[in-house]
Q: What sequence folds into this?
C-alpha cells in the first residue's frame, strides 16, 4: 500500500487516516462515531495549543455531537460497524501524517493515549456536556461550531 504525498494538513481525511492508522496498528476496532469524536478531540487540542486550525472545514452540529461532513461522506456506509479501510481522495489513499509534523503528531499521540479506550458513546457524551462548544452551538441553533467556542471549551475529565 502506497500513500500519496500532500503538502499541508488541510484535509480532515488526513487526520482521519492518521487515527485509523494508529487504530489498525494496535488492532483496535474503530467505528465512524468514535472516529468523528477523536478527530474533534485532536482538532480541539491542536487549536487550543497552537491557536491555529488544523484544517479549514468546520464541525457541524449533529445529534451525536461534532461531525465533519467530508469524513461522514467517506465513511457513512459503515454505519455503526467497524471501519475497515482508509479514506481515499482522487482515487488514492489520503496520506498518513508523519512524525515530521511534530505539533500534529504530538497532539494525535496525546489524544490517542487519553481517549482510545473510551467507547464511542462515552466520547459522544463528553461532547454533550453542559458548556461544551457543541452544546452552546446546538442551543444557539447554529449549523457549525465556531473555533472560538472550541478554544473556550474546558478539557474533558
A:
Amino acid at each position: 500500500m502506497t500513500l500519496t504525498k500532500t503538502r499541508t494538513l488541510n484535509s480532515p481525511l488526513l487526520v482521519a487516516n492518521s487515527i485509523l492508522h494508529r487504530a489498525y496498528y494496535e488492532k483496535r476496532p474503530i467505528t465512524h462515531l468514535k472516529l468523528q469524536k477523536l478527530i474533534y478531540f485532536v482538532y480541539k487540542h491542536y487549536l487550543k495549543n497552537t491557536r491555529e486550525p488544523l484544517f479549514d472545514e468546520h464541525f457541524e452540529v449533529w445529534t451525536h455531537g461534532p461531525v465533519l461532513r467530508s469524513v461522514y461522506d467517506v465513511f457513512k456506509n459503515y454505519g455503526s460497524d467497524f471501519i475497515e479501510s482508509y479514506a481515499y481522495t482522487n482515487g488514492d489513499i489520503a496520506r498518513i501524517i508523519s512524525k515530521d509534523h511534530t505539533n500534529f503528531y504530538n497532539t494525535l499521540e496525546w489524544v490517542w493515549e487519553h481517549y482510545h479506550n473510551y467507547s464511542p458513546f462515552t466520547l459522544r457524551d463528553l461532547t454533550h456536556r453542559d458548556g461544551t462548544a457543541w452544546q452552546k452551538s446546538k442551543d444557539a441553533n447554529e449549523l457549525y461550531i465556531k473555533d472560538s467556542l472550541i478554544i473556550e471549551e474546558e478539557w474533558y475529565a
Summary: The radius of gyration is 15 Å. Residues 1-8 have pLDDT under 50 and may be disordered. Residues 12-152 form one domain.
